[in-house]
Give the backbone structure.
Amino acid sequence: MDHANTFDVIIAGAGPAGSSAAIHLARRGVRVLLVEQKKFPRAKLCGEFISPECQKHFEILGVAEAMSTSQPAAITETVFYSTGGHHITVPSSWFGGSAALGLSRAVMDNVLLRRAQDCGVTVLEGVSVTEPILHATEVKGVRVKENEYLAPLTIDATGRARILTKKLHRTEPKSKPKLIAFKAHLRNTRVAPNACEIYFYPEGYGGLSTVEGEISNLCFIISAKQVKRHHSNPEVVMREMVMKNRRAAYTLEQAEPVSEWLSASWERFGRQQPSPAKGLLTIGDSAAFIDPFTGSGMLMALESGELVADVIVRHQNSESVAAEYTAEYIRKFDSRLRICGWLRRAAFNPRLAGLGIAIGSASKHFTSRIARATRSPKRDPHRTLRAG
Ligand SMILES: Cc1cc2nc3c(=O)[nH]c(=O)nc-3n(C[C@H](O)[C@H](O)[C@H](O)COP(=O)(O)OP(=O)(O)OC[C@H]3O[C@@H](n4cnc5c(N)ncnc54)[C@H](O)[C@@H]3O)c2cc1C
């Protein structure tokens, strides 16, 4: 095997999880290969709400300035609207810092990937990882087209696709997607410029907020059944379902797409195995998919990228890395994932969502406790890796 094809760590997928893990590792002298199937910058289906806690991660990763010069929108509150128009407000300051950022994934992910390159990470862009290389049951690297790349540790950061993990478990039953999400950039909306507005409607919910260039980003989820009923046309779904929400009917009345619609489907929320095989770890959405109404998926991606790098740097052999990473992952993320599981029932049921909003608007203390419970109660990004 050519020495140029061997690394300390291989990471598949350059979303916020993969790129942040790569940056942390490279800055600690680890030789990293990062493989990304798309050429960046690229649009990505997402609410594009970057939770305030991400700012601390951006500072540690050395990308805070690049993010702010991209002129993100400052989002000071998230407002949850029931179908009938009642609402509760969650100030961004409850999560630390004054504002969340509204920045497109095209920009954010590109900034992180270029930073990884600057830190010495070997990046392959526009090529897909096809499968893990297995020696007995141990993952020893990945196949990328006809090439083989080897490393004692491989990280699956391919998002909800979980490419490497799925290839290991070929027998994983395929279920029909129950939920579909759509996203587009729009102009002529009436969304409050400093707010991320969340709308509940039958069989789904959606978010509307501002990104750089004063464009609005609409991202919504709905049952696959409703999508089929509306001929899989996102604009029809928006008009017929999302706009059943009274506030959305107002903010989206004159909205016009300025990008193509992106769509994605998936089967489940929640946690998967942090280490599905010897030599393989998972981070970001590959490890766990948290409900988008929390606006914290990218935060979890950055947190798990930091955690995996920290564990790898502290432990030398791949077996103790796997055990330690799994234990720390569960400790850090399981409680918020469990709470989101309870809240999810209300998110897809407008009556329950309306009731939750009524209770929440009667008690700021209650709302604040629930909102904070969707994050880590003891989070301190300076605890582990620091700029080096
Ligand atoms: C509808 C919806 C709305 C959301 N809104 C928000 C929000 O507002 N705020 C928030 O914080 N989070 C939000 N999220 C969650 C957020 O998008 C994810 O948590 C986050 O993108 C996870 O980052 P990641 O790096 O794990 O995966 P991803 O961002 O999905 O990145 C994975 C990368 O892997 C690459 N890849 C895939 N397969 C291969 C392969 N075979 N070879 C090489 N590369 C590959 C992909 O191209 C991609 O670049 C939302 C999610 C959904 C579904």
Residues 318-347 form the longest helix (30 residues).
